[in-house]
Design brief:
The complex is a heterodimer of chains A (146) and B (566). Helix content of chain A is 24%, strand content 23%. In chain B, helix 6 links the parallel strand 6 and strand 7. The chains are: A alpha/beta (146), B alpha+beta (566). The interface between A and B is large, with 35 and 41 residues.
């Protein structure tokens, strides 16, 4: 279903497997997909605003961070989490270890790293700093200086 | 003499050490810099071990100011909004000696670059800099870069407001911003609080101009989408007045629209100017306003007034007005020439602003040796409360020099060959490194600058010509900002021969104007003659003190064109 990232399911933080559909598929059949507890995969090129009116029906939102230099996912996370107050899990998938702090502070609530990072300690990268200089969706654990 | 200066500096430095004229990093800030170096060191190790691929490492190292070329690696260190103290300049001199070949290079965006860095030593280098509050964070890459500010901020009469406290607050805000660190392209900001625009803010991705509204409240007018390069564009005004306390939320909205909608598919159209152009300035502004509606009342995004008040104290001038009685300037021909071009009025009585030009015949503008850096640091300690500024014209400003000590300072500068009297004249050419040093350049820059300087080697004539900018870029990347000079040269290559496209009457000080193309490009052999012809047309047509751009406005392109192309 989601061809270019070869992923149709994601494991949420409760260790349950959830089926993911594209934004396009979701908009075609919101009610039936909602009834089976489907989640939505959002790629950087997607218009995340299209999900705004059906957020409370989405079981989980997966943001795809596979493209290291494409930063749109961070704005998607911020809008979903801070502006529209999406209450479900926002999982960053195909995540890069060096970008965890940016993802988590932008509003991503959990992540699934790409396989390349198996042997690297992600604690170092998700919590590398003790201070933050700007308001973001999530500043927990950081000394705020803004 | 040298030892004497250094002895004096030690004493003077201690005298001034409790007086601030800038924001100095506290324990938290320094810890942050150390954490950043630790993280980068780990990334570097993974890269060297083969666990991090070239593309991702490139993206990460650029955000730490590191360029890797085939034979040499360059590190760009931020001098935040061009403000530094003597201690920091000495640390930069130490870096030049220890990790480079005894050189540094001040850039047109007020930063400093080192060109011969060993990758294995980078973490130690950055650690040393962090101990004096310096770093290379976001000095490159597709992120928000160091702010360009007026080098005379806080010093001149009639200023709307000192821009530095705002620069510092905006600098903090974009420091590792979680949402805006992986942008479509690089993003450069300029902030100006003076009447004249020394920052060229409308050729930046985003320019902020401090102003007061009818009620006397302070705010910013905002210009977005300016830039030079192959397509020169003047930034469009997207907001005529954003109250200072709302500036961060407004900036976030600009960045969000750019981050989400900016072109990422075409490497030649990554900058925000292309987005603004494609959408139209009105539509772009509408999108920003639409986003801003949601955030402008968010208390977390209001500018922290307590921080602002504290910063205004940190940036307070370290000197008080001084009545100097019975003082007369010494009569010395060379001194008076230097003084005319290099010394400006300070808003406080008893003080002057001194500009030190680093331009030397045949060398790359902005180049500085470690020895010169130490001399400048010492002299700033002795004569300018230990503070210095860097400028867009790649010179150094001593912000607060007692009027009765300017002559002594000049004598010391003269002794160390730092008293070039041509600040602002045509002899102070801005040039990029050109194809002698840069892989991107199509043509040479510095040799042309040298030939122009040789042609105009009569100082009387140079002084008679007066304030006139010549900028030379070796390719369309326009590093030397040729579009906004009185006379601009853009280097190119045709059938392996170097040619230069000449533009005239660009400017940014009073208004922003992109220079007009004179006509067909001119070969390297003939370009110095062309410059001389242009200067002569100016001299023959000017009334009294009329500047180049004023003459051009009055007489137009034709007389210049006719003389050059005959």
């Amino acid at each position: 279903m989601v061809e270019d990232i070869e992923m149709t399911n994601v494991v949420n933080s409760k260790n349950e497997s959830v089926q993911l559909v594209t934004v396009e598929k979701w908009l075609e059949s919101i009610d039936s997909l909602s009834s089976i507890g489907a989640g939505v995969i959002v790629k950087p090129t997607d218009d995340v605003e299209l999900l705004k009116d059906s957020l409370d029906k989405i079981a989980i939102i997966a943001l795809d961070f596979n493209n290291f230099d494409d930063g749109r996912g961070y704005s998607h996370a911020n809008l979903l989490s801070k502006r529209w107050e999406y209450q479900g899990e926002i999982i960053g998938v195909n995540a890069h270890i060096d970008q965890l702090q940016f993802m988590l502070r932008s509003g991503v609530t959990s992540y699934k790293l790409l396989d390349d990072y198996e042997n690297i300690d992600d604690i170092d990268y998700s919590n590398g700093f003790s201070i933050c200089y700007q308001a973001a969706a999530n500043n927990s654990g950081l000394k705020e200086k803004f | 003499m040298k030892n004497k200066i250094i002895e004096n500096v030690t004493i003077i430095y201690h005298t001034y050490k409790n007086i601030k004229n800038m924001y100095e990093y506290n324990t938290d800030d320094t810890q942050f810099l150390v954490e950043r170096v630790d993280q980068f060191e780990k990334q570097l190790k993974r890269y060297l071990d083969g666990d991090l691929d070239d593309a991702k490492f490139k993206s990460l190292r650029l955000r730490n100011g590191l360029y890797m070329e085939l034979h040499a690696h360059m590190l760009r260190v931020a001098i935040p909004y061009g403000v530094m103290n003597s201690r920091q300049l000495r640390a930069l001199a130490d870096v030049a000696d220890k990790y480079d070949r005894g050189f540094g290079h001040f850039t047109t965006r007020q930063n400093i670059q080192f060109n011969w860095i060993e990758v294995a030593e980078i973490a130690n280098l950055l650690r040393e800099l962090s101990s004096v509050g310096l770093h290379a964070i976001q000095t490159s890459g597709k992120a928000i870069r160091n702010i360009t500010a007026d080098p005379l901020s806080g010093l001149t009469e009639g200023e709307i407001a000192d821009a530095r406290p705002y620069c510092e607050l905006i600098r903090r805000w974009f420091n590792l911003h979680p949402e805006f660190s992986w942008l479509p392209g690089k993003f450069k900001i300029a902030v100006n609080g003076a009447k004249l625009d020394e920052t060229a803010l409308r050729i930046h991705d985003l320019g902020l101009r401090l102003l007061r509204n009818d009620k006397g409240e302070l705010g910013f007018s905002v210009y977005v989408g300016g830039g030079l390069g192959a397509v020169a564009v003047i930034g469009a005004e997207t907001a005529s007045f954003v109250p200072v306390e709302d500036i961060l939320s407004y900036l976030e909205s600009v960045m969000r629209v750019y981050n989400l909608k900016g072109r990422r598919d075409n490497i030649k159209r990554l900058r925000i100017k292309f987005l603004v152009k494609e959408l139209g300035a009105a539509e772009f502004s509408r999108l920003v306003d639409e986003d801003w509606k949601h955030t402008k009342n968010d208390p977390e995004l209001k500018l922290n007034i307590n921080h602002l008040v504290q910063l205004e104290k940190d940036f307070a001038l370290p000197v008080k007005p001084l009545e100097i009685s019975g003082f007369e300037e010494p009569v010395d021909f060379n001194y008076s020439i230097w003084r005319k071009n290099n010394v400006r009025a300070h808003k406080l009585s008893g003080y002057s602003i001194v500009n030190v030009s680093l331009t030397k015949l045949g060398s790359s503008p902005g180049d500085v040796t470690s020895k010169q850096m130490r001399i400048l640091a010492d002299l700033a300690g002795q004569y300018s409360s230990s503070y210095l500024r860097t400028t867009k014209r790649q010179s150094i400003v001593f912000p607060h020099v007692r009027k009765d000590q300017v002559f002594d300072l000049w004598q010391s500068l003269e002794e160390f060959s730092l008293a070039s009297p041509h600040q602002g004249t045509l002899a102070q050419i801005v040039a990029c490194p050109g194809n002698d040093y840069c892989d991107l350049a199509k043509a040479s820059s510095i040799p042309i600058a040298t030939r122009v300087q040789q042609r105009f080697d009569d100082m009387d004539k140079v002084l008679d010509i007066g304030d006139l900018n010549i900028n030379i870029s070796g390719c369309e990347n326009s590093c030397a900002h040729h579009h906004i000079a009185d006379i601009g040269l853009l280097g190119m290559k045709k059938n392996n021969v170097e040619f230069y496209q000449v533009t005239v009457a660009g400017e940014t000080l009073d208004e922003t104007v992109i220079g007009k193309k004179l006509g067909r490009s001119i070969s390297g052999d003939e370009v110095v003659d062309a410059i001389e012809n242009i200067v002569n047309v100016y001299l023959e047509n000017r009334d009294e003190e009329e500047r180049f751009k004023e003459v051009f406005k009055r007489i137009g392109l034709k007389p210049f064109k006719e003389r050059v192309y005959g």
